[in-house]
Amino acid sequence: MLTGNRNWNLLSWIKTLSDFQITLSTSAEAVNLTLERLLKMHDDPEAELIEAMRYAVLDGGKRIRPFLSLASAGLFNVEPERALRVAAAIEMVHCYSLVHDDLPAMDDDDLRRGQPTCHIKFGEATAILAGDALLTKAFEVLAGDDTHPDPHVRSDLVMALARAAGPEGMVGGQMLDLIAERETLNMPEITRLQRMKTGMLIAVACEAGAILGKATDGARHALHAYAHDLGLAFQIADDLLDVEGDEKTVGKKTGKDEEAGKATFVSLLGVERARAQAALLVDQACEHLDLFAEKADSLRDLAAFVIKRRA
Amino acid sequence: MLTGNRNWNLLSWIKTLSDFQITLSTSAEAVNLTLERLLKMHDDPEAELIEAMRYAVLDGGKRIRPFLSLASAGLFNVEPERALRVAAAIEMVHCYSLVHDDLPAMDDDDLRRGQPTCHIKFGEATAILAGDALLTKAFEVLAGDDTHPDPHVRSDLVMALARAAGPEGMVGGQMLDLIAERETLNMPEITRLQRMKTGMLIAVACEAGAILGKATDGARHALHAYAHDLGLAFQIADDLLDVEGDEKTVGKKTGKDEEAGKATFVSLLGVERARAQAALLVDQACEHLDLFAEKADSLRDLAAFVIKRRA
């Protein structure tokens, strides 16, 4: 098994790669394999559920959240197998949220990363269940002995992910997003919405490495602060893609926010100021990493990548 | 606080009540209060999400699963506050599954316990999110320090609930239920479907008391075996209600299975044999409780209640 070789540490090796695209793709591949193993196909009559879960997670995403977990775990010399399980669990939660978000009653999207969305492919009922199952499975993975021998760590991971994904986090942010369709939000409201909807999951992906590594509070807070700024930069970049991106490259419908009359960072700030703000946030994010010195270079690279990406 | 009085133990007291209806209602009330406290209303703009979550859980259900947790925890002298948190978490999972099950893409039900279903009241998008949020919140509650000081117990509870509720449990059973609409299942297939769809959550509700009480494997297995038989008896009783029940008393549409052409225990066995089978299962369930002697009387009462209920 790729990550099981005791003489070779994936996380250390990834840190030595100089080309960030290779680094990101390599870790994405390890995450994909981990997801495949955690979601094994079987012959039982309900196999279609697993098929839909796999379809929803194994779709060639960039795996930015898992990368954050792997890179932050690397700071504390966490065993790669453990970091990969946590990275996979967080990606399951991210993907379940996309499946439910794409449903006709929600954003009603037919395309995701250039492919039919889960409900287009498997039907609405199966897509709802596949989302539910991915969310549940994520917690099973975190609570599993293989994630960490210390139950305190496992229980902390569950708590952190549940808070980030629940009504005070991601789902609360999606609720705000529904409200944003009928009410025009101002800048602080949009910032809060985005922090909840995407920022908190990004933050927990980063903090997970610190939890796994039993890092000091200082290190954990530094990663949280980094992730907080990164999350906003990420969202501004997403809003810019929705305005400027090409549907084919982005792999989903663009111009949606404007069409829905939703206020975004870009509609409130304009393209130029939004771009400047994202760059500023990335600089700020990286400053929080100073205490890790060059060990955190891959997190700095990711921050730079996030605002340069074209999809 | 009702359950915080150190001189008075709710679980011990409940065991002394001779009228089972009072016992069940009393413990349901304690569960309701716990749910209300865990799902506090707030003034944030996304409050509608909490409102929908509360609507979905605080609807006067019989709280059979929470009762199982409380009664099984009582066997091991678990502190009532801890048992109530676990009972509430399991009920959140049960209620989230009802919210998603009632959606137009799933069973398309307008009524639940005599009230408009969550999506009728709050709209489909909010109902989907409320279900997601309840599921996530359940894991947050289990992982919380207040649930048990030993992180091993918290992590075990998360694992047990995730397995029972996930693709190999409840959600897998719901997938089978969708398949049952287009394929006629035979007796072993129906049994497997029901074990997954309702039996596993009932089993984890029972086992949770043993996990909280750090019970022996023998005690845990006995509770599991009890719950296994109880779960099937419960489902047969449900099928009988669907055939014989009065819509007004049952509080939801009846005759649905027949209309959908779904095979059930009743359609396969006929009313008389199904009733006899349920009674047999209840006797069998109670035999597994022998090692607890009279301490398990409330679990025996519940088993008897389950097949006598009219709603």
Name its key features.
two-stranded antiparallel sheet, 16 helices, 2 strands, Farnesyl Diphosphate Synthase, mainly alpha, 311 residues, homodimer, disordered N terminus
Please tell me about this protein's structure.
The structure is a homodimer of 311-residue chains. The first copy, chain A, has 311 residues and is mainly α. The first copy, chain A, has one domain: Farnesyl Diphosphate Synthase (Orthogonal Bundle), CATH 1.10.600.10. The first copy, chain A, contains 16 helices and 2 strands. A two-stranded antiparallel ribbon of chain A has the order 1-2. In chain A, helix 2 packs across helix 5 and helix 11 packs antiparallel against helix 15. The longest helix of chain A has 28 residues, at 217-244. Chain A is globular, with a radius of gyration of 19 Å. In chain A, 54% of the residues are buried. The model of chain A is unreliable at 1-5 (pLDDT under 50). The interface between A and B is large, with 54 and 54 residues.
CATH architecture of chain A: Orthogonal Bundle
Largest sheet of chain A: 2 strands, antiparallel
Name of the CATH homologous superfamily of chain A: Farnesyl Diphosphate Synthase
Specify the oligomeric state. homodimer
How are helices and strands ordered from N to C of chain A? HHHHHEEHHHHHHHHHHH
Proportion of beta-strand residues of chain A: under 5%
Task: Give the averaged pLDDT of chain A, no decimals.
Answer: 91
- What name is given to the CATH topology of chain A? Farnesyl Diphosphate Synthase
Shape of chain A: globular
Major protein interface: A-B, 54 and 54 residues
Which bin fits the share of residues in helices of chain A?
over 70%
